[in-house]
Design a protein that fits this description.
Blueprint (H helix, E strand, L loop, with lengths): L18 H7 L2 H4 L3 H17 L5 H19 L12 H13 L12 H37 L4 E6 L2 E7 H26 L1 E2 L15 H7 L4 E2 L3 H6 L2 H27 L7 E2 L18 H24 L13 H24 L2 E2 L1 H9 L5 H10 L4 H18 L8 H7 L7 H5 L1 H7 L8 H19 L1
Helix pairs in contact: 3-4, 3-6, 3-8, 4-5, 6-7, 6-12, 6-19, 7-10, 7-19, 10-11, 10-12, 11-12, 14-15
This protein binds arginine.
Length: about 475
């Protein structure tokens, strides 16, 4: 245990810290992931202190060299982290002092761990968020590629997981594309809102030193500074924003996972997932399990849980910093890792999917998926839609009894139920006709889906520049 002389805040203490209290209070095992951001923040702070005449040039040179040598050791995996120094900030500061002497202690002039940790976490999330944005884009491109490659494949569309109306597989895929576009948008808005510097807020009230917050903000490539010093150190809404983005993205992945699990089952047989992304059973030799889809669906629970956990952590905290807030990192690091890996797995899995167009088409043609079209046919002949609905319902009942689809019922039998039905009725019952009839803006007709794909291609091209 650290004797009280060695602890960085030990001056006013006469007793030692309880060993269990020390480990329980330490966060270094988690927050050391922000080590490089912590060093970047310290370097920006030190150069500002020099520019403001608070550090001399030599002092600054020596502090900077010390920090760079620490960065090198961290990158080489040679830095010895010590829970006795509690967190990433004090580990680095302690090491700096070990390397350059008591001058290391000057780095903390006009700064607090409270503005330091808020700065580090914003920088870390900004970096992680940008990488996630790249993965998200790859998934979006893969979806558009798939939609284009399988253009024309008809499958059942469902409501209540009951066959509803036939749709194009590409339409279904483009629906997910749209969701992931909004996720990408949410991510960039989150990152833009987060990109303001808390550095220089001090512990909570600012500082009497003549600092230049705008200079450190510029050096760290923040968009600007957070105006109110208390706000700067006390809110974690940027973490909540990020976790919301992660949760919603995972929920989209989870729903897609659920569909792929169903579609790859023997009963559906719509798709075969690549061997590379499935596993076997240790007992049943025939099995091929959609593990990645299941795991991503499962991990969604944990990511949403992290959002909930931090919401609850924050809900009763008085301003400004409270140690409770140290709990903000573990969940958000885990969520960022999970989203990033899940997206990566998804782009390779989707690219390797085999589509069974025949099975999809057969399923789309069954279960009276063209019933609405027959009702629309009657409505076009002037019958109020409600009555048309009833006529078709009665025809379906007849078909169910006889075990035939609507299009197999002779026109004469149909006319017994409604005299409005003529021989042209068969044209509207054909599967391709059914799909292409839905040509309202954003509908499943081929030309509408092609429009979506075209717009997506343009959007992706614009983003790339
Ligand atoms: N490890 C702390 C955290 O992550 C850093 C800030 C500590 N500040 C303090 N006043 N104890 O929240």
């Amino acid at each position: 245990m650290k004797s009280r002389q060695k602890r960085m805040w030990g001056g006013r203490f006469t007793g030692d810290t309880d060993a269990l209290v020390q480990t329980f209070g330490a966060s270094v095992e988690v927050d050391r992931r922000m080590a490089l951001e912590d060093i970047d923040g310290s370097i920006a702070h030190a150069s500002m202190l020099m520019a403001q005449g608070i550090l001399t040039e030599e002092e600054h040179t020596s502090i900077r060299a010390g920090l760079e040598s620490i960065r090198k050791d961290i990158l080489a995996g040679e830095f010895a982290w010590d829970v006795e120094f509690e967190d990433v900030h004090m580990n680095i500061e302690h090491e700096l002092t070990k390397r350059i002497g008591p001058l290391g202690g000057k780095l903390h002039t006009a700064r607090s761990r409270n503005d330091q940790v808020a700065t580090d976490l914003r920088l870390w999330l900004r970096g992680a968020g940008r990488q996630i944005g790249v993965e998200l884009r790859t998934v979006r491109v893969t979806l558009v590629d798939l939609a284009e490659a399988h253009m024309g494949v008809i499958m059942p569309g469902y409501t209540h997981l009951q066959v509803a109306q036939p749709i194009l597989l590409s339409h279904h895929l483009m629906a997910y594309y749209a969701m992931f576009c909004r996720d990408a948008d949410r991510l960039s808005q989150t990152l833009a809102r987060m990109n303001y510097s808390p550095l220089g807020a001090g512990a909570l009230a600012g500082t009497g030193f003549n600092i230049d917050r705008h200079a450190t903000a510029d050096q760290l490539e923040f968009e600007g500074v957070i105006l109110n010093s208390m706000d700067a150190v006390s809110d974690r809404d940027f973490v909540l924003d990020f976790l919301s983005f992660c949760s919603i993205t995972m929920i989209h992945l989870s729903r897609l996972s659920e569909e792929l699990i169903l579609w790859s089952s023997q009963e559906f047989g719509f798709v075969t997932l690549p061997d590379s992304h499935t596993t076997g059973s240790s007992i049943m030799p025939q099995k091929k399990n959609p593990d990645m889809c299941e795991l991503i669906r499962g991990k969604t629970g944990r990511v949403c849980g992290s959002l909930m956990a931090l919401l609850m952590t924050m809900k009763g905290l008085p301003l400004t910093y409270n140690k409770d807030m140290q709990e903000d990192k573990e969940g958000v690091f885990d969520a960022a890792d999970t989203v990033q890996t899940s997206l990566r797995i998804y782009s390779s899995m989707l690219a390797g999917i085999e589509v069974h167009a025949d099975r999809m088409r057969a399923a789309a043609g069954a279960a009276f998926s063209n019933a609405t079209d027959l009702a629309d046919y009657l409505a076009r002949k002037g019958l109020p839609f409600r009555e048309a609905h009833d006529v078709v319902g009665r025809l379906v009942a007849i078909c169910l009894k006889e075990g035939v689809p609507l299009e197999s019922l002779p026109v004469g039998r149909m006319q017994e139920v409604s005299a409005l039905i003529e021989s042209d009725v068969m044209d509207c019952l054909d599967l391709d006709a059914v799909v292409n009839a839905r040509n309202s803006f954003g509908g499943t007709a081929a030309n509408e889906v092609e429009r979506q794909i075209g717009l997506a291609r343009e959007e992706l091209k614009v983003e790339a520049h």
